[in-house]
Amino acid sequence: MIRPKKGNRKEEILEAGLEVFSKRGYYNTTTALIAEEAGISQPYVFRFFKTKEELFISALDRAFERILQTFKNVESSPEQLVAKMIEAYEELSVLYPNEIALQVTGISVTEKAIRNAMKKGLSSIRSYTLERFKSAGIKNVEREVTTFLARGILCNISYFLDLPELIDGQIK
């Protein structure tokens, strides 16, 4: 069913892509499914994204940029910085669960362009976090950043699998 024209179609397609990719993964998603979710024809998807891969990368870029912006918006004393950034990420995960699922999916995709987008996104988060932790005077900064990022990835996997005991140790 075709929806009437409204709003920003590229955004609608991107949101539909996030929804479908998060439920079906990269390899089981087609542009036809994304078009159906967006309420448009499949050829219309290609007016904005040349390929499914390009759409997936755009969605990944959005997810990583949102994480970075969230971390940049954290205001905290140096002593509370790590805890406040974890709290901000947890809130972000609740608000944008499809983006969390997309990151987990992105790790498993073997296409070079998607792997490069994952590397770029994770590297930008690592670089920002490292500089932020250094400027806060956090001791053993390399180890703390690695632990922080590892915990974030574990949170993503825990959320994606609906297995909270990976993080909080409590069985459902």
Question: Secondary structure elements and their pairing?
Answer:
Layout (H helix, E strand, L loop, with lengths): L8 H16 L6 H8 L3 H7 L3 H21 L8 H15 L1 H12 L3 H24 L5 H21 L3 H4 L4
Oligomeric organization of the protein chains? single chain
Q: Roughly how much helix do the residues carry, as a percent range?
A: over 70%
Which secondary-structure class do the elements indicate? mainly alpha
Mean pLDDT over the full residue set: 92
Rg measurement, Å: 18 Å
Name the poorly predicted regions.
none
CATH topology: Tetracycline Repressor, domain 2
Reading the helices and strands in chain order gives HHHHHHHHH
GO molecular function: DNA binding
Organism: Scopulibacillus darangshiensis
InterPro entries: DNA-bd_HTH_TetR-type_CS, Homeodomain-like_sf, HTH-type_Tx_Regulator, HTH_TetR
Protein name: TetR family transcriptional regulator
Key phrases:
Tetracycline Repressor, domain 2; 9 helices; mainly alpha; 172 residues; 0% strand
Descriptive account of the structure:
The chain contains 9 helices and no strands. The chain is an all-alpha fold. It has one domain (9-160): Tetracycline Repressor, domain 2. It is elongated, with a radius of gyration of 18 Å. It starts with 8 loop residues before the first helix and ends with a helix. This is TetR family transcriptional regulator. InterPro entries: DNA-bd_HTH_TetR-type_CS, Homeodomain-like_sf, HTH-type_Tx_Regulator, HTH_TetR.
